[in-house]
Specification:
mainly beta, seven-stranded mixed beta sheet, single chain, 11 strands, four-stranded antiparallel beta sheet, globular, about 130 residues
């Protein structure tokens, strides 16, 4: 069974940077799973941010050019580098995993991921 633990959230000013980490543990390392990041603010649905599937990277339009998803050199970590942060990036960020997928998989949907971390708060002050 795969388990995910996020870290790296915090408070940062507009224009600043944060690097979120997702530690993957269990029977299979992160190379066997697509790792995604979602975010959620109170009262709203969980929103897709980015996913790394094999060597393919997909981002929501609002973070393209500012966020970068990557995998660690080992098989057990993934990262979300967030630069040029804006107040609208404020949310709880979740790491999620699903088995590696092929074209057409609905990776934008939170229900497409079967393992989740506990979340880490990111707050961007104006």
């Amino acid at each position: 069974q795969v388990q995910l633990v996020e870290s790296g959230g915090g408070l940062v000013q507009t224009g600043g940077s944060l690097r979120l980490s997702c530690e993957v543990s269990g029977r299979l390392g992160s190379h066997y799973y697509a790792v995604g990041w979602f975010r959620q603010i109170p009262g709203r649905e969980r929103e897709f941010v980015a996913v790394l599937n094999w060597n393919e990277r997909y981002y929501v339009d609002s973070v393209k050019g500012r966020f970068t998803i990557s995998r660690g050199n080992d098989e057990n970590s993934a990262f979300l580098q967030m630069d040029s942060l804006k107040p609208e990036d404020t949310a709880v960020y979740y790491c999620a995993a699903t088995p590696l997928f092929i074209s057409g998989y609905p990776y934008l949907r939170a229900t497409s991921y079967n393992v989740w971390g506990q979340g880490t708060q990111v707050t961007v002050s104006s």
